[in-house]
Backbone:
């Protein structure tokens, strides 16, 4: 099962919580919105999704793929 | 473009929410949705009741039976909902101003009665919606728009307050310790009797800015280093609805 980070730019208010609490430095801010800097480092721990106050980032599981 | 959890529990078209950038309420609303998901409750058997304030927007966002009531009276309305629908999981979500100031009388009597309600306090130490006035949980010495020289009053310890009033479950959570807080919310919802979780939220726009607490990241780091997440009290006492049934049966002609 593959996983990927999904960002909803329209909902992001640029609070930086996800960037600050990411243990692998995967995310960064660009023009007050979060963007993925280095997805290959992501361990899909879900801390960004857990603490995003705006539900603007989540981990999607692509079922059926390996 | 939203997670399955958000699609399932948040009403379509209501997001983005009105809360400020970095508001802890968003984190805690997701935590509540996750707690209900983990418990596997039927959405039609959950009722979320709120009063007035930032936290009370939750009744508009969450996709359950919801009731957005008058200031401070969420528990009074919730009592009615629960008595009329004993099978319903009734969850009151309210802020510190709503629940401990104008609704202070309701919370102590709900705790005393031990009616099977769950009360989630989103405690951001201030009246956020109306401009950052001090609330009964604003720490002593902290600045608010109505306490420009610092708050001279001692704050409530809300958990001790409800235990003193007779609550049978009381716990503390925070917006930083999300997973333990989700577990406490689950326990509170499953508990039979009046259950209370004081969730430390964060208001970076008013409380944080006025008190130079830094941005939301700094405020969450403060919670990580200073705030406790714990179950403080759990006991078994006669539940109101069960006692009511006994009275009805004993007096049936």
Residues:
């Amino acid at each position: 099962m593959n996983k990927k980070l999904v960002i909803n730019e329209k909902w992001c208010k640029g609070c930086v919580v996800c960037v600050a609490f990411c243990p692998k430095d995967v995310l960064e801010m660009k023009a007050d919105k979060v963007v993925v800097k280095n997805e290959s480092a992501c361990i899909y721990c879900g801390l960004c999704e857990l603490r995003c106050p705006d539900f603007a980032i989540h981990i999607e599981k692509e079922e059926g793929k390996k | 473009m939203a997670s399955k959890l958000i699609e399932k529990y948040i009403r379509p078209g209501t997001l983005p929410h009105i809360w400020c950038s970095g508001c802890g309420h968003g984190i805690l609303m997701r935590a509540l949705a996750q707690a209900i998901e983990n418990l596997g409750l039927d959405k039609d058997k959950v009722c979320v009741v709120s009063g007035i304030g930032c936290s009370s927007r939750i009744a508009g966002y969450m996709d359950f039976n919801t009731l957005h009531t008058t200031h401070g009276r969420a528990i009074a309305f919730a009592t009615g909902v629960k008595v009329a629908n004993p099978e319903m999981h009734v969850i009151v979500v309210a802020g510190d101003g709503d629940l401990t100031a104008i609704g202070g009388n309701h919370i102590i009597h709900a705790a005393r009665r031990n009616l099977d309600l769950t009360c989630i306090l989103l405690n951001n130490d201030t009246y956020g919606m109306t401009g950052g006035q001090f609330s009964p949980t604003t720490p002593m010495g902290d600045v608010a728009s109505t306490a420009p020289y610092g708050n001279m009053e001692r704050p409530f310890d809300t958990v001790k307050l409800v235990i003193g009033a007779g609550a049978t479950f009381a716990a503390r959570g925070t917006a930083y310790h999300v997973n333990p807080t989700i577990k406490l919310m689950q326990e509170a919802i499953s508990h039979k009797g009046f259950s209370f979780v004081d969730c430390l939220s964060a208001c970076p726009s008013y409380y944080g800015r006025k008190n130079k607490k830094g941005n939301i990241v700094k405020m969450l780091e403060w919670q990580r280093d200073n705030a406790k997440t714990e179950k403080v009290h759990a006991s078994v006492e006669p539940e109101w609805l069960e006692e009511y049934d006994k009275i009805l049966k004993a007096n049936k002609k």
In short: The interface with chain B takes residues 6, 8, 10-11, 13-17, 20-21, 49-56, 58-60 of chain A (CB under 8 Å).
